Amino acid sequence: MMNRRAMLQGVVGAGAAGAALLADMNNTAIAQDATPIPVGSALPMSGIAAADGIEFKNGLELAAEEINAAGGILGRPVEIHIEDTKEMGADLVSQSMQRLIDRFEAPVIINGYNLGTNMIEMDVAADNDVIMMHYNTLISHNEKFKTDPARYYSSFQGDPPEFWYGPGCLNFLKTLAADSKWKAPNKKIAIIPSANEYSIVIANAIRDKAAEYGFEVSLFETVPFPTNQWGPTLAKLRQDPPAAILVTHFLPQDLAQFMVQFLAEPINSLIYMQYGPSLPAFREIGGEAVNGVVYSTVIGCLPDDFSKPFRESYRAKFGPNSAYITGSQTYDGLWMWALAAAIAGGPGEPMNKEQTTKVANAMKRMVYRGVNGTYRADPAGQSAFCYPTQVADPSLGMPHQFLQHQDYKTDPKLIAPVLYATDSFIVPPWIK
Q: Which family, according to UniProt (predicted)?
């Protein structure tokens, strides 16, 4: 039987949360054979999201290395296979996934994110009876799952959907003002999404709930995706300065340009950005201009003692500027699937619905404390629960992290939620 202490005790990183368990299973179970288990991943290794694609690949490689060092899955090593989804989209992503299944007979596909897919990944997984875990961070995953849970039984989203960014952001701003850490000059907020599903869903969630948290929306302007020309938007912001500017566009290079252009004529507005500032490119391009920026992510490697071995191993293997906050996602995903496959008696293979169902059922029951926090599958949508806006228990939800760039030469500081925070919010240098 699975020992909870073994599940939670780390030796070589959070993935080692399962290392003791897998090692015990490998010592007591008769290995089926020593044939490598193919693990597929459809990632944007080129194109606008290549920076993330590389980190997703790194996370898989490190997890595979640790799992194999622990003895593999019932004695079988895992072997990573990557297909480049390039500019992404439904056709490219579905074709990439199908090639992984047809060429390598991968029983599992663990993706980072891919844009513009309309969650076709779930249909590929269903048609081939393979496990699929992804980090698209989309409420459309949950909505599609609800249309036919029996068909989409093997698809999992490894983090909470983007909807939760909306109330989470508003709650953060309200708390910051209530604690007198930020003196808001007014109740106005400006919302700046870009023309993609992820950004717009977040922006709409903020807009629709703003009044509940005591804010009024003074500007809601959608910009092209991608974009680095912020002049027209900045002109409108300067005409009617809000207390906070909430940019839900997420490409790091574009967000860095926003800050450079903003500081040419700054206003006394707090700036919140979406996910992109977690990547090294944001600091590399923006330099000192990024100091003071607040951003958030519903998934990312926590700066705690539990994940310290992972962070150290990741940077030692992939370099001091590598973004473990991104690689941690697929890293946890592969460890979770490996544990579930071992519990189920093996990974199975494509079109083996009986065995894939066993693995899926193990994943549904699992509460996994990884380097990103706690994953527990929401049965209503088969994605992670979000703490604290969706669930109040931090042991059963993944923390919605708020971080601030306080010195562009170092990693950003985690300032909320309070149970995980390592540092305090500081007033941005442009606010006078």
A: Belongs to the leucine-binding protein family.
